[in-house]
Amino acid sequence: MDEAINIEDLRRIAKRRLPKIAYDFIEGGAEDEFGLDRNERAFQNLSIVPRYLIDVSRRDQSTALFGRTYASPVGIAPTGLAALFRPGADLMLAEAARDANVPFIMSGASTASIEDLAKVAPEHGWYQLYAAKDKKISEDMIARARDAGLSTLVLTVDVPVGSNRERNKRNGFGRPLKLSLRTKLEALTHPAWMAGFMQHGEPLFSNWAPYAPKGASNGEVANLVAQQTYAPLTWADVERFRSLWPRNFVIKGIMDPRDAQRAAELGVDGIMVSNHGARQIDKSPSPVEVFPAIRDAVGDRMTLMIDSGIRRGSDVVAALCLGAKFCFVGRATLYGAVAGGTAGAAKALTIFRNEIDMTMAQMGAPDIAALGPDFLFSDEPLRNRRP
Ligand SMILES: Cc1cc2nc3c(=O)[nH]c(=O)nc-3n(C[C@H](O)[C@H](O)[C@H](O)COP(=O)(O)O)c2cc1C
Q1: Yes or no: is domain 7-377 CATH 3.90.226.10?
Q2: Best probe residue, ligand 1, of 23, 24, 107 (max atoms within 8 Å of C-beta)
Q3: What CA–CA distance (Å, rounded) separates 152 from 298?
């Protein structure tokens, strides 16, 4: 892991460590997976026009978000089932985020609990809610996150139904987990992962365990999650959750300016413009492509954040130039956690921090306040620029 110099290196290490069925779950998108490429390409298509003869000898990437100052403008997006990739991975990611002073969003399908998160990263942990069909479960989860003192609740809205992830189907990844002989034999060729799996078995959806019958096995809790999720979710639920949650309330998965406007009207504090890392609808545009229209529709009425396809610090800087206040990464830090636990997740965050610093220096932006749309290349504005 010491030799990894970028996120792609961490991805390669993670791929080596994991059996195909687990790696494909992380890496995969929906259907033909055009969206994966589109997300990354949208960032590649943003270019930065550097300015020179500016003193950049001191650089500061600290970023204010919801009244708190984080060390860097990139946090960890929620990723479910993390313990399947490395036992304990949820809290390893939380520790890495805490130590780097950036936010960590615990997934609604996490394999550690809200209460554990509050112990490990009380200041940096946010909770992402997957609404349950049984309204009492969602309300109880919100109360638990509130009582645990977490600052921010994130409601994910872009999973109305399970998506068509064909890699998972081919690998037999589903409920109940049916591993083909080929899958099992392949898994044996990843002994480090296999040892962890043999020791810990199928991970527990810890946050859901209290709602399963007493003594339920991990598999039975997973069945409960499968029954309760994909709950019908409407704006009425947004209003209800908003009224139940006293602190920062964020919606994750907004892609249309009209939905962004509606969220602002309902008193939502922030949105994550996201297509779930191209895991839901393959025909979705990239969040980068829809971001300018959303920014123009809601202006400063809400805090705008973005994820999906970020692999470089320069992607983060470009997103901030577009007008995003903060960025999140899903796969990048997960690769790190798979490759090297807490140290690996920390390494991913360090890579981002160093690349952001380097990009800001190269482009002539000493701090986050200096970033703006003027830096983004487009021939027309360049021609029109006056000293
Ligand atoms: C393995 C995996 C699991 C995920 N689980 C969740 C989840 O439980 N809840 C959620 O809101 N988003 C989930 N996501 C989406 C991420 O939060 C995030 O939107 C996405 O990964 C961003 O794209 P990126 O991976 O290109 O950075 C998951 C993504 C991955 C890769």
Answers
A1: no
A2: 107
A3: 20
